[in-house]
Amino acid sequence: MAADFQSAGGPARRPTMTPATGVREFPLLPHETVQRNTPAGDLFVLAHLGIPQIDLGSWSLSVDGLVDRAVSLSLDDLQARPKRVIEAVHQCSGNPLEPLRPTRRVANVRWGGTDLAPLLHELGLDPSAGFLWSYGADHGTFLGRQCDGYVKDLPLTRLVEGDVLLAWELDGAPLTAEHGFPLRLVVPGFYGTNSVKWLSRLHISDRRAEGLFTTELYNDPADRDGHAGKLRPVWEIRPEALIVAPPPATELPPGLPCTVWGWAWSDDGISRVEVSTDCGRSWHAATLERRTGRGWQRYSHVWKPEKPGTTELRARAFDVSGACQPEDGTRNAVHRVMVRVRQGAFNCGRFDTSEP
Ligand SMILES: Nc1nc2c(c(=O)[nH]1)N[C@H]1C(S)=C(S)[C@@H](COP(=O)(O)O)O[C@H]1N2
Ligand SMILES: [Mo]
């Protein structure tokens, strides 16, 4: 079944798009994510179709499909429900046309909203209900295709943990237009593409939603990770570690300790991080903090560079089931950072990477 867009009021109530073309803003480079919680102003913005300017007076969230009672809810209705604040990794899976290229667009965000699961239970779920289809109010063209709405889906089993939010706050303040005002879905542990902004409709179905952003794009190649012959939707975040320090092209004096540190995360959490300071020849267990909630975990390893020359630092994360990041060829491939050890180097100096 195709996920056709049907909002309560039909096309006449569709918001204006400003801009009416895709938005991609990345205020921070990967090594600039030094803060545990990413301030709202430093968060990347991804919008495939542009930014809808939503008037709260004419906005509502409709819930329909395999529920006993379909409803239309205002923001006040939702804000009258119990509020939760959740810290969670927020990661863009990358350009859907280059699904395997690492982009390391990642943040750690505090979201405020209400748990979706009890709301659906109150409405009465049909026993055949299996999937949640989420619709954004944005519309326009993507890859030359007319899109009446941005639609994503996820299995209802993901809701049982009680942390899939209908969110109206980011970092303690109301959502801004670019981050989804007035309401967005937040699916902690799933790639950002699943956290539908400008949420206008939830539809409960017994199957996946067929569409550009569900079954066409955002499916990893078949025959990987034991999913022979099947598509693997871009849902759960794969294990990954990012090197924050030292930043790329740092010059380090030999003999002085240098702390290699960064963040590691995955859908289920990280059990171990290893650091290599010799281009992947040897690996050392890093000190790793425990996960709180669904946030990313800090790791660190103290390295005393000895031999002058250029070297590559690498960090690799293992998830709780022991799965490790691949070296190359996937969106979560191992992060590498070039640094140079030089006699007399000033500790925070940088070298020109264009030098031979
Ligand atoms: N309605 C709607 N929701 C959307 C998108 C979109 O284009 N339209 N982009 C998704 C993608 S690809 C990402 S990575 C996140 C980015 O959220 P942010 O811009 O608030 O950081 O929003 C997701 N939700
Ligand atoms: Mo994304």
Features:
single chain, 356 residues, mainly beta, Sulfite Oxidase, Chain A, domain 2, Immunoglobulin-like, 2 domains, five-stranded antiparallel beta sheet, 3 helices, 36% strand, binds the ligand Nc1nc2c(c(=O)[nH]1)N[C@H]1C(S)=C(S)[C@@H](COP(=O)(O)O)O[C@H]1N2, binds molybdenum atom
Compact description:
The protein is mainly beta and 356 residues long.
Describe this structure in words.
There is one protein chain. With 356 residues, the protein is mainly β. It folds into two domains: 16-233, Oxidoreductase, molybdopterin-binding domain (Sulfite Oxidase, Chain A, domain 2, Alpha-Beta Complex); 240-350, Immunoglobulin-like (Sandwich). The protein has three helices and 27 strands. It has helices at 75-79, 116-123, 212-216; strands spanning 16-17, 23-25, 45-47, 52-53, 61-65, 71-73, 84-91, 106-115, 131-136, 140-142, 145-147, 150-155, 165-170, 173-174, 184-186, 199-205, 219-220, 232-233, 240-245, 250-252, 258-265, 270-276, 284-285, 287-288, 297-303, 309-319, 335-341. The strands form eight sheets. The chain has a five-stranded mixed β-sheet. Strands 7, 8, 13, 14 and 15 form a five-stranded antiparallel β-sheet that branches. Ligand MTE is lined by residues 43-49, 92, 136, 138, 150, 179, 192-193, 195-198. Molybdenum atom is lined by residues 46, 92-93, 192-193.
